Amino acid sequence: MDALACLMTRRTATRLVEPGPTSEQLAVMLTAATTAPDHKMLRPWRFVVVRGEARTTLANAITAAAEAVGGLAEPVIRKAAGKATRSPALIAVIASRVPGSKVPRAEQDASAAAAAQNICLAAHAQGVASAWKSVPLPDSDEVRAVFGLTGGEELLGWVELGTLSDAVPLPPRPRVDLPAVTAELTTAGVLAPVPALAAAAATLVTPAG
Ligand SMILES: Cc1cc2nc3c(=O)[nH]c(=O)nc-3n(C[C@H](O)[C@H](O)[C@H](O)COP(=O)(O)O)c2cc1C
Hints:
- By secondary structure, this protein is α+β, with helices and mostly antiparallel strands.
- 38% of the residues lie in helices and 18% in strands.
- β6 (184-185) and β7 form a beta hairpin.
- Its cofactor is FMN.
């Protein structure tokens, strides 16, 4: 798959089933993550792979976190914990800010987000389906501890990985109104339409439901 095809055809998986990614495929994803643009090369990110039985360890941490909240109904707790085991594997993406750096926190977090996208794209390039999802109870002591988070670190989500189930079709991706979100600055200082957008948009693959 060439790079543009990879970008244009990546979709977020609806349901992920076995087989999960191999160790070699995971290693490629993690390596690709570290090529994210990174102001002053701070490496303001960390990644934690969770798969196999370790998913139950993660689910137990989420359960403990949800119970500690107090007053949550049992099905709510079970649903939150079940997110840890709904895919064969996942990679947690941690914004690991460098304190005292002149690089603003938003830029450091942007690098971590770019790393997460690289994981999704490197998965897709290898035929692995992915879904970037929020982490349940990300600020709880229990969930922070299971990922080894320290003071200035924060979970930006996790990327679930596996094989796309054909049981749940991908929804069509709503079209983006490209002229509404793009412009080109002219010499006269006017924001004008970007040329050739329609032709580029036609290369977007939007699977019909
Ligand atoms: C930080 C982050 C967290 C997300 N969390 C969730 C989530 O918890 N549940 C969900 O359904 N989609 C979540 N999404 C959105 C999906 O990953 C996906 O981008 C969206 O459904 C659009 O699908 P597409 O990637 O196929 O265009 C999240 C996206 C980001 C960037």
